[in-house]
Amino acid sequence: MPILEIQDLTVSFTGDEDDMALQDISFSIEKGRSLALLGASGSGKSVTSLAVMGLLPENARSSGSIRLEGRELNGNTDWQEVRGKEIAMIFQEPMSALNPLMTCGEQLVEGIRAHQPGISHKTAKAQAVSWMEKVLLPDPLQLFHKYPHELSGGQKQRIMIAMALSNKPKLLIADEPTTALDVLVQLEILQLLKSLQQEYELALLFITHDLSVAEWIADEVCILEKGRVAGNHLSDYKKVFVLDEHVLPGAREDALLKVQNLDVTFGMQKNWLGTPRHIFKAVDNVSFSISKGNTLGIVGGSGSGKSTVSKCIMGIVPAAAGNIFFKGMDLTALSPKGWRSIRKEMQMIFQDPHASLSPRMNVGDMLAEVMQVHHIGKGGGQRQEYIRRLLDKVGLPVQSLKKYPHEFSGGQKQRLCIARALVVEPEFIICDESIAALDTKMQYQILNLLKAIQQEDHLTYLFITHDLKIAEIFCDEIVVMQEGRIVEAGNAAQVLQYPQHDYTRQLRKALL
């Protein structure tokens, strides 16, 4: 008997009857087997997982059958004994799935005690620390007491993986669990999931847009296109989603941004007076420059300092030492008033789109507000027309204007973030894992869009990524970071094809 069996699953949302999210989806997963659900952004992958977990929104209507070991779940109203215990899920966006008011360790303890009646807090804590070790988190005892915002994106996702596995479920749903991780950690996590699956004979539903990841981890595949099953073989994915891996070349002009001897530190383990007992150096003596019209990539593992550098450039975190020059102006010496005057020229596309979009504003109002604040466009009509053209550029339909962020898939939300960055016509954009959540075909479409806009408007990009293949084809130059320091730098193709540092070689070898 299969652990999970889905037959003729159809899901639609009120007001969208003519455009069903899922239509007649069928597949099954046996005990100890894994199935990869492949498809482009918006194809219905995440809707399928939410249906299995009973987490569809109130305006969703579903029909068909979802059975767990022969027990019908579709229409089941008592999910307390199912979610977290029999079926666990690793969500795509850890920042929105974790409670910002609780430490990571206590969130693990809470989940363990909820599904293991009678267990003491001490025993649950020991289990939580053990699972943190299993998912390869550094210094689990210290991280146990940290809040989600104090962890890197990769570390937050590993907390989610530990939380999902801590009660040894029969079915594990992994919704793009390695999207935000660097290649070394990605491989480690995939190996971990595979070994645990074999050890506990888990049924694994692995949702991804990465063909190489699906090929590595899955026993079977189910390919979705526009809410329908388009095939059950990897070769079908290549036929349905023909990839164009050509990215337009970049151009070189004068330097725009210079970072000199940058240090960023954080106080750790504060005493009762708030004085830190230990100083952690997240960025250590980092220097680089970006020519106007060029793209510099920062590559490195989770926690290497990539995102911290970008946040320091944007004035989100302060520099402990060093200088950051933008168009000859030292950003580290700017007053709040000075930052307000330069915000329009510098924009950032964040790693987690869900956490960076307002859930209370629709797309049209969100983009129009940015234009109004920066005095772009003359009147609402002109702004709306500009927004429509911009949405078309990033691959979102004009109907998106009236929708809210929660109505979009992960990839669509990231495209919305790209549109929000472009709406003020900046000179410099930081892309912090900005395409990690997109399917492979859409990744190259967005890269070509960014490059075309770069050539037309002489934009300059700082491109942060853990994907070495993307960095090699998109970036003019790269720097490789490890533990807050630059270990290698130079021409992107030269550095990645002929790495000199051991860490760069490890990143290269870890590519799937």
What does this structure look like?
- The protein has 512 residues and is of the alpha/beta class.
- It folds into two domains: 4-240, Rossmann fold, CATH 3.40.50; 255-271 and 279-355 and 427-509, P-loop containing nucleotide triphosphate hydrolases (Rossmann fold, 3-Layer(aba) Sandwich).
- The chain contains 19 helices and 20 strands.
- The protein has helices spanning 45-53, 94-97, 104-115, 121-134, 140-143, 153-165, 183-200, 211-217, 234-240, 306-313, 336-342, 353-356, 363-373, 380-393, 410-422, 440-457, 468-474, 492-497, 502-509, and strands at 4-13, 22-29, 34-39, 60-68, 71-72, 87-90, 171-175, 203-208, 220-225, 228-231, 255-270, 276-291, 295-300, 321-326, 329-330, 346-349, 428-432, 460-465, 477-482, 485-491.
- The strands form four sheets. It has a six-stranded mixed beta sheet with strand order 6-7-8-3-9-10, sandwiched between helices. It has a six-stranded mixed beta sheet with strand order 16-17-18-13-19-20, with helices on both faces. A four-stranded antiparallel beta sheet has the order 2-1-4-5, with helices on one face.
- α4 (121-134) crosses α6 (153-165).
- The longest helix has 18 residues, at 183-200.
- Mean pLDDT is 85; it is low at 242-253.
